[in-house]
Amino acid sequence: MARKKFSTLTEPMFYLLMSLHSGKKCGIDISEYISRRSSERVKLGPGTLYALLSEFEQEGLIKYVGVDGKRKLYELTPTGEKAYNDELMRLRQCLADAKEAENDE
Amino acid sequence: MMSKFVKRVIPFESCDIPAIQNWLEDMAEKGLFFKECGVFFAKFEKGEPKDMRYRLDFCDVVACDIPEEKKELYERSGWNVVGDFKNDCVVICTDDPDAPEIYTDCELLAKPLKSIISKYRIYLAVLCVMLLTTLAHCGLPNAVRVIRFLGYIPKPFFAAVLILLTLLIGEIIFRAARLIKLKAMARRIKNGADIPNGEKGGFSRAVGKVLIPLAIPITVAWAAFVLLPDNAADSDAEITDFSALPFPTCEDLGWKCDEQSSSAYGSDSVDSTIVNKRYFLSQNGDVNFRTEYVDMNSEHAAKLLSEDKIERLKQYDEASYNTAMQRRYELERD
Description:
The structure holds two protein chains of two kinds. Chain A is an alpha+beta fold. Chain A has helices at residues 2-5, 11-21, 27-37, 46-58, 78-104, and strands spanning 62-68, 71-76. In chain A, strands 1-2 form a two-stranded antiparallel sheet. In chain A, a hairpin with a 2-residue loop joins β1 (62-68) and β2. In chain A, α2 (11-21) crosses α3 and α2 (11-21) crosses α5. Chain A is elongated. Chain B has three domains: 5-94, no CATH class; 106-236, no CATH class; 250-333, no CATH class. Chain B is built from ten helices and nine strands. In chain B, α3 (110-137) runs antiparallel to α5. The termini of chain B are far apart.
C-alpha cells in the first residue's frame, strides 16, 4: 500500500526524501535544506512538513534515529532510498523524453 | 480593577476547524485574544483590536502539545503557538499577513482528519445509545408499555423526560450536521482543496453556544433517568411483593366492618391497575369488606391509583351505601 501510495511523489515529498538522502536531519534542517536547494521555490509549511514526516515514518520510508537536543533526527530507510531513486529515474526519463520531443520538433 | 481576561462559551467542537479559526479571528477584531481553552469556555486576553490570523494544527498533537522543534519552526515561519483547543488541536496565530500557510499540501491532512472524524463518530454513537436507552426506558418499542409509562409518571417527571429527549435529539442533530460537514471537507481536501478560510458558521455558532455547554447536564440527567434504580421509570417493574401496597382497610375509610380481606393479582393487559372494593353483607348479616388489586403490573402505578381510590372511597356516603346494600340483600333473600 505504501509503495503504491508514494509511487509518484509530489514536489515537497521528493525534496524531503532528497534532503534525507544527503544524511540524517531534523525537521528544521529539512525545512532549511528544501528552501535552499529549491531557491525558495518549494514551500513546505511547518504543519505539512511534520504531517509528511509522520506519514513517511508510518509508511516506513524514513525512520527516527535519535535526538539532537530537542530535535528528532530522521534518516531514509532502504524503502525510502528506493522510492527516492525510482522517482529520480522517472523524472530523468521525463526530462529525456521532453528533450527528445523538443529535438523531433 | 477590571480583569484583563474574559471567558466566552466555545460555540464549536474542535472538529469545526474553519469555523473555530474564523471565530478566533473575529474575537481578535474585537480586541479579545485567545489564551487558553477549557471544556466549555475559552479564556481571552483583552487588548487593542487587530487583524490576526489563527490556524489549528491537528497533526501530531499529543497530550495537548506539539514537539518543541515544531514550535521553533512555527516561530521561524512567523507563527506563535498559543495553546491547545479542547485537547485535539493546537492554536497558532500571527499578525503577519504574509506568513506562509502552515499547511502547503492539504492532501496530507486527509489522514489526521480521518482520526478526528472517527472520534466524532464515537461521540455521535454514544449520544445515539443514550437516546435509545432513554426511549427504551420510556417503554419503546412496546406501545403498551409507552402508554402505561406516559399515563402513570408524575407530570413534572414527564416534562423532564420530554426535555431530556428533546435535548438529546438536538445534540444528535447538531453533532451529526458537524460530522457531515467535516466529512465533506475531508473529501474536498483529499481531492486537493485547501482548508477553507472565512467560514462564519453563524447559525451553528448560535446553536453551539446553547447545546455544547449542555452536554454534561444532559449526560447527568440521562444517567439519573436510566441508571438510578429508584425512579419513576421503574414503574414498569412487575410486582411480586404486595406487602408494601396500601390495601385500603375499613379503618382507612372510616367504615365499620365485621370482616375484611384483600388480594392482588396481575396480568399483562394494558388496563390500568385498579382497586376493586367489595363491600357486602354476609348471610348472617355481617358486613364484609374486601379490596382487590387487579391488572397490577406496576408497583408505582398501583400505589398511585390505590391511593387515589382510597381518597375517592372516603367520599362515599356510607349510610346511603349501607341502606342500598341492605335493601339489595333483602330483595335477593326474598
